[in-house]
Amino acid sequence: MKTGIIGLGAMGGYMALNFHYTEYLHMIWNRSPGKAGPIAAKTGAKVADSPAQLASECELIVLSVSRDKDVLQMVRAIATAIKPDSVVVDTSTVSADTAREAAAILKDKGAHFLDCPVSGGVEGAKNGTLAVMAGGDEKILERVKPVLSAIASNIAYIGPTGSGQACKAVNQLMAAGINQAVTEALIFGQAMGLDMNKVVDIVSLGAAGNWFLDHRGKAILAGEYTPGFKLSLHHKDLSICQSMLKNVSENSLPILEMTLLHYQRLMDQGYGDEDISALFHLKKEQFKQKQ
Ligand code: NAP
User: Fold this and answer.
1) Same-domain check for residues 180 and 209
2) Model pTM?
3) 244 CA distance to ligand 1 centroid (A)?
4) CA angle in degrees (0–180, nearest 5) for 62-115-25
5) Which atom of ligand 1 is closest in space to residue 121's alpha carbon?
6) Is 168 annotated in the active site?
């Protein structure tokens, strides 16, 4: 299945390489041209002149772009040239409404859309071990599963269009809580004068162990916040959660509200492009140690 990918950022760049290793990669496109050249040189994939050209030459088009408006912009561009029965798989994290809008645009052209947000971070994209949460037509998912297996070790069908993104919203809210818990607990441990690398090693093996602690714990202690997952993108995801919550409840969710405020403050201080673990800056600032 001739596969093309649009968006060669932290996630999409590695996805392109994994589609190449499994011999599916045909074409690539990135908005700023600098990112496509090195990947083309490594893989031999053709660099498309435009998203439309890529759509006209590929049966499967994978998107990995930033925000709702970016997905819709790319889908509209693709729709001008897509062949009937082609499949668009969007791995970006956006709202369920955007997924439904994208699916409707492509349906008009006789093409299919699957919302397939991913989890597992840049490491998961690099190792081809992402978790995919899929929404759309299950038969279409079955058709493209062999290709998606290049980037994912787990692919779950969640339900109709938008369900993948709704599942991802659950994931992102949970990730916010984990970030809050890990960064807060680490500052507490530091204040008690513990050897925190030893603490991370042993805590990781017990009931409080988690992916974020394993992959970011020691980097946080070393003051390294290289993304990973950009704080500004997680802020975007939590804003999506907030708007999706309004559709189902009048409640506000404390972790959601608190993390949005914290991230906004960090973005105002210039930390938006750091990893989400940069929340530790704020925990340090807020922690008043007893003299
Ligand atoms: P990133 O490194 O910032 O890359 C974003 C990509 O989107 C770039 O290739 C960028 O092109 C492209 N893009 C943005 N706006 C565009 C537009 N209007 N038209 C065309 N291309 C556009 O972000 P990332 O970390 O790879 O994340 C990509 C998506 O995956 C996001 O939705 C994110 O929430 C999600 N995600 C990220 C992670 C993670 O750990 N990083 C994990 C799971 C899901 P330029 O190069 O021209 O800027």
Assistant:
1) yes
2) 0.94
3) 21
4) 15
5) 40
6) yes
